[in-house]
Description:
The complex is a heterodimer. Chain A has helices at 4-13, 18-25, 83-88, 109-118, 120-146, 149-159, 163-166, 169-176, 180-189, and strands at 29-33, 38-40, 48-54, 56-62, 68-75, 79-80, 95-98, 102-108. Chain A is of the alpha+beta class. Chain A starts with a helix and ends with a helix. Chain B has one domain: Four Helix Bundle (Hemerythrin (Met), subunit A) (Up-down Bundle), CATH 1.20.120. At the A-B interface, β2 of A face α1 and α5 of B.
Amino acid sequence: xxxxxxxxxxxxxxxxxxxxxxxxxxxxxxxxxxxxxxxxxxxxxxxxxxxxxxxxxxxxxxxxxxxxxxxxxxxxxxxxxxxxxxxxxxxxxxxxxxxxxxxxxxxxxxxxxxxxxxxxxxxxxxxxxxxxxxxxxxxxxxxxxxxxxxxxxxxxxxxxxxxxxxxxxxxxxxxxxxxxxxxxxxxxxxxx
Amino acid sequence: xxxxxxxxxxxxxxxxxxxxxxxxxxxxxxxxxxxxxxxxxxxxxxxxxxxxxxxxxxxxxxxxxxxxxxxxxxxxxxxxxxxxxxxxxxxxxxxxxxxxxxxxxxxxxxxxxxxxxxxxxxxxxxxxxxxxxxxxxxxxxxxxxxxxxxxxxxxxxxxxxxxxxxxxxxxxxxxxxxxxxxxxxxxxxxxxxxxxxxx
Lengths: 192, 199
């Protein structure tokens, strides 16, 4: 099984000792699915942690009047799954779907919990990864509340320029909390 | 007969069920008046369709639960029975959601005209979440070894795997009806932004 991308990712963000690394890598199974597959529905408790090998995924919330808000995108090489539901084992408030056909490595909450109990280093790694995820979420909160549409647009393209090619623009607009028409105007006018 | 990998079949059925949950979540955000409106005289409203599905859910979810209790350990492959496969294909909407063979529902599954929106929707969602759990439990069971009697005759019994397939195909069929009913009422297509009938 192809765990090399996961290994490379770990070595870059949080290297483990050999025993722990071996234990951690052995807990993953390959999983693939078509585009527009819902991996987790609102109301379900997330059972899996995914590591993306290929494809783009999107988490979105359904609000009133058929409004939907895109919460987050995931793509290779990074983790996916409804993180808050997974870690708290409480029902998810939103949906997670694949936007393109996707390949993952996948492990279960049970396996993760077991590894964290057995190996403090794995627990520290999960804490470390979660902490940076939290940092990202709070930074995004600042952008959503304080940035103009143009600033949000520029900030996204500076951080992740490739998303313009890989993600439909209506979802990017929804992610930034701006209109699809405003988004295409910015695309035409803003110099990055 | 096509053989399925049991785990893949169950995961695909779970993904199908989640699509139904997503569409029902959009329905929850819509004007209840629309959901109660008949698209044409004598045609079922959205809520009536959902109540029709709930009435089947009340029967089948319990029947499946019983089958699972008696279930033997998992088997890597599942081969549908000929009758179960036939029923599933009969129910399942075609590509792009076309329904060719119209049918009439049995009398005791025709919903009342006088329904409350909220409890019907809530029950529907609860049933789908329970169905997801049953599909999860089924991952450790043999899908071919126990049989579930169908609702109209206890003498016709389908394999557990076919009961799941048939039940979900029936729901998908009626979700095409819901889509069409709302399309007629609102005079538009593409009612649900993110849903896809992935058949």
